[in-house]
Amino acid sequence: MAWRNLGRNRTRTVLAALGIVIGVISIASLGMAGAALQQQATSDLGSIGGDVTVASGADSASDGVTRAQVETLRDIVSDAEVVPQKSNSTTLTARNGEEARMSVTGVTNAAALYNLTNGDAPNRLASGALISNGTAETLDLELGDPVEYDGQIYRISGFLEESGGFGGGGGQLVLPISALSEQDGYDTVTVVAGNSDAATALADVIDSQFNEEDDEELRVSTFGSLDSLETFLNTLNYALLAIGAISLVVASVAILNVMLMSTVERRGEIGVLRAVGIRRGEVLRMILTEAALMGAVGGLIGALGSLLVGLVMFQLLTGDAMAVFNWSSSQYLLFGFAFAVVASVLSGVYPAWKAANDRPVDALRS
Amino acid sequence: MSVIELEDVIKRYQSGVETVEALKGVDFSADRGEMVTVIGPSGSGKSTMLNMIGLLDTPTEGHVHLDARDVTDFSEDELTEERRTGIGFVFQDFHLLPMLTAVENVELPSMWNTSVDRHDRAVELLRRVGLGDRLDHTPDQLSGGQQQRVAVARSLINEPDILLADEPTGNLDQDTGQTILEELTRLKEDENVAIVAVTHDDQMLDYTDTTVRIVDGVIQEVAQP
Ligand SMILES: Nc1ncnc2c1ncn2[C@@H]1O[C@H](COP(=O)(O)OP(=O)(O)O)[C@@H](O)[C@H]1O
Ligand SMILES: [Mg+2]
GO cellular component terms (chain B) (predicted)? Predict the structure, then answer.
């Protein structure tokens, strides 16, 4: 019955359902866009977000972080990994004449800092070299090939995973710390805390241990900005959802309009139903069923459309289209569908109530 | 015994500041198996009276008795229930639902009542009004006379005691009107219902048991030929 009533004015029904479809697509797509951005950003930041970086402070008398300070750091942070590094930069020349300028990091415990795409990151880097895989490609280097730094030859024992968005474009060469031994102290010391909360806590401890109000021995920094980035992403997410919600409100108004028009148009018919003994509650249910059906169909089509949009979006933003099925993003498909049904039924309530309570005599006279 | 009775019914309509007294103290009754025809000039209160009998509207003063029960103060939901079980309606312009087939239109008054299946009775009623071969036609595939016969079948689906018809032949040509009247007369006897029909159609008087003339909200004469 409800189906056929909807079928009667097809164009109108289709237009209203289209409103719902667009509403659902916008709320679900915007929600998924937020989820994709968040996933992308946190995966970029994930590895460095939990690090504390310690460097020589403005008021330090020594050049770099001293060995003594590193020992003290190890004592303070107990189980967190403390990784001293020295850094420099160099230009490598390939056999084919290609040149690449890159930063050089001397480190012993390479495993604590780097992810490798190929080869092993030793926790005691003694003789080999690690190089960014992008740079390796440019220079046509393979595992076991030699690179020269400061007159010494190192053989490549692994490729570094390119650190996406942040960390910047330049290549990196990681060498044993002995390669950069001309300076005494370390340029930076990385304390691997694991996550950004722990990093912030450790940074506070280190800061209070070494520094006074007017005497900065060590400069302690974290990617605490990650927190504010997360907050920003959340806000962005809400803003996107709010825009989606507005479009659903617009869709609801469209349904309200369609349901009102169709009940006004069918006033006489509904009067007949009431005259022949159909109860008010039954008329009410019939019209609400029509609204719910419209919402369900529109919501379903909208959810399917959003899924397509989501697949494309995740492919572009995270390079993994299937990630759209993760609950963090696929939940928006469900929300969108549920919202469509609920909004449709709610917009049907007033017209249905009005039609059901119209006195049959009045309805029949018109 | 009368199946329906109006007792000194007054109906006033308030339109703006003006009050129209459409019925000015009407007494009326009809029995099972009786066909009563209500005639009178336009605006004399015929439809208003039929609405009182059909429990579609309630009197301003006076009483309505259905099967010897006073239903004057029934709630809207109680009146709906009485209409469903006891009263059938045939309207001047048929009022069939356009998206339903003939047989579905006939079943309509019982459609929400899942406890009884009226399908067989609907088919049977359509056969009796001569539409056995039009069961699955929609109203736009039927002529006016056929539509009105579907409406007559619909009015009888719940085995009512009273069948009310407001100008049932008003939108039909002479011959078609006549077949509808013959149909009603036959059904009146088969189903033992009271038929109250409003008409302008003189040929209807040939089929009626009692004629009631109403003028200006007052019953002028009751004739039993
Ligand atoms: N709902 C209403 N509101 C106001 N006046 C009405 C209403 N229904 C009927 N009337 C008035 O009551 C009188 C009787 O109307 P009606 O019963 O329809 O007459 P008939 O059916 O005999 O032509 C008319 O004057 C009409 O204008
Ligand atoms: Mg009338």
Answer: membrane protein complex; plasma membrane
Strands laid side by side in the B210-215 sheet = B87-90, B162-166, B194-198, B35-39, B210-215, B218-223
User: A-chain residues within 8 Å CB-CB of B88?
Assistant: 276
pLDDT in tens, A60-115: 877 788 888 888 888 888 778 888 888 888 888 877 777 888 888 888 887 777 77
Listed in order, strand segments (DSSP E) in A9-133 are: 51-56, 81-93, 99-107, 116-119, 129-132
Cβ-defined contact of A277 to B80 (cutoff 8 Å)? yes
Residue A193 belongs to domain spanning: 51-222
Protein residue with its CA nearest to atom 24 in ligand 1: B43
- Separation between Cα atoms, residue A202 and residue A212, nearest integer Å: 17
Are residues A276 and B83, on separate chains, in Cβ contact within 8 Å?
A: yes
This prediction has a pTM of 0.71
ipTM: 0.91
Note whether A292 and A358 are same-domain residues: yes
Q: How many domains does chain B have?
A: 1
Calculate how close chain B gets to A297, using CA atoms only, in Å. 20
Q: H-helix or E-strand containing A279?
A: none
What tens digit of pLDDT does each residue of A7-63 get? 667 777 888 788 889 888 888 888 888 888 877 776 666 556 678 888 888 888 777
Task: Examine the domain organization and report whether A176 and A105 are in the same domain.
Answer: yes
Q: Are residues A92 and A12 in the same domain?
A: no
DSSP state of B134: -
Whichever domain contains B202, its CATH number is: 3.40.50.300
Whose structure tokens read 């005639």?
B39
Interface probe, candidates A276, A286, A366, chain B, greatest B C-beta count within 10 A: A276
Please give the structure tokens belonging to residue A272.
């007949």
How many domains does the structure of chain A reveal? 2
Could you tell me which residues come within 8 angstroms of residue A72 by beta carbon, excluding any fewer than 6 positions away?
A: A209, A210
**Residue B202 identity:** D
